[in-house]
Amino acid sequence: MTRYRFMVPVVVFLAVGSAHRSIAAVEYTAVGRSSTATPNVAVGPQYDSTHVYVASADLDRFVASFVATFGGQSSKPTVMNVLPVPSSTEFQFLQTPVGTLSVFAFQTPVPFPFGQERTGYLVANMDEATSAARSAGAEVIVEPFKDPIGIDAIIQWPGGLKMQLYWHFTPPKYAPLQTVPDNRVYVSRDRADSFVNSFVRFAHGKVVADDRQADAGEIGRPGETYRRIRITSLFGNMQVLVTDGHLPYPFGHEITGYQVQDLAVTLEKAKAAGVTVLAAPYKTSDRTTVIVEFPGGYIAEVHSGDAR
């Protein structure tokens, strides 16, 4: 389904306020020994994209607001069938200095389970990628299928996270991103270890931080703590947020976090482009973070500063 993608970092958030066995010391060490058993199919974070679904009436406004906020450019809208079953969508691909988006405005009902996948990762070989995903503990919930320019599949990780893998008949060539976004993953205590274990093995990634006393104000619960795991790989950055699910709106709805040089200036551009601030800027030890909503309903996190 994805036309063009960029690699995205993943961040995992753990349950607020509780102490648990150290994943970094136990689970991740085991992953580090076994990860070489599968091929590294990643290409680069500039080829991974966030999937955004909007109504046809909101497509132009959304694209214009996103580009006005972050810069970059969009492709011309194209109507096509990008799925393995009959369907029609208007599609635009956005390339910005802080990340890429595949934007879909379906003109027909969206077939299950499409619309639930959050990101698309470009892989070097689809057969190797699906085999590696299965070996790492993921399910292939939509078997590989052809689209107009390549092959796609949908996989699901322990904990329910769904993402798309894609491969192009003609390999794309994009410049590196100025800043690599975070793939923001909310998981439960029950599945956090198994998710991180599986994803790190598949991505040949590295856990760069596992903070069991992170400031929960960054997920709407100031005065409390939670577990936050940061992962890097050739697929990009991931932030895993492990919570008890008691999340005030809009936290948990954002799937990507964008790093900018000047948060105040970016927010001025965003507001002028019709973007709404849903959660006011919150300063933590290593960044200032805010949650915003773009025209059409796309919710994202934006931050300045970086712990990596």
Can you give a write-up of this model?
- The N terminus is likely disordered.
- Strands 1, 11, 12, 13, 14, 15, 16, 17 and 18 form a nine-stranded mixed β-sheet that branches. Strands 2, 3, 4, 5, 6, 7, 8, 9 and 10 form a nine-stranded mixed β-sheet that branches.
- The protein is of the alpha+beta class.
- Helix content is 18%, strand content 37%.
- The chain folds into two domains: 130 residues, Roll (2,3-Dihydroxybiphenyl 1,2-Dioxygenase, domain 1); 123 residues, 2,3-Dihydroxybiphenyl 1,2-Dioxygenase, domain 1, CATH 3.10.180.
Find the count of extended strands (DSSP E, 2+ residues). Answer: 18
The end-to-end span amounts to 31 Å
CATH fold category name of the largest domain: 2,3-Dihydroxybiphenyl 1,2-Dioxygenase, domain 1
Query: H/E element string?
Result: EHEHEEEEEHEEEEHEEEEHEEE
Helix content: 10-25%
Sum up the overall morphology in one term: globular
- Approximately what portion of the residues adopt beta-strand conformation? 35-45%
Mean pLDDT: 90
Question: Which structural class should the secondary elements be placed in?
Answer: alpha+beta
Query: What does the largest sheet look like?
Result: 9 strands, mixed
What is the CATH domain class of the largest domain?
A: Alpha Beta
The Rg value, from CA coordinates, equals 18 Å
Runs in which pLDDT lies below 50 for 5 or more consecutive residues are: 1-35
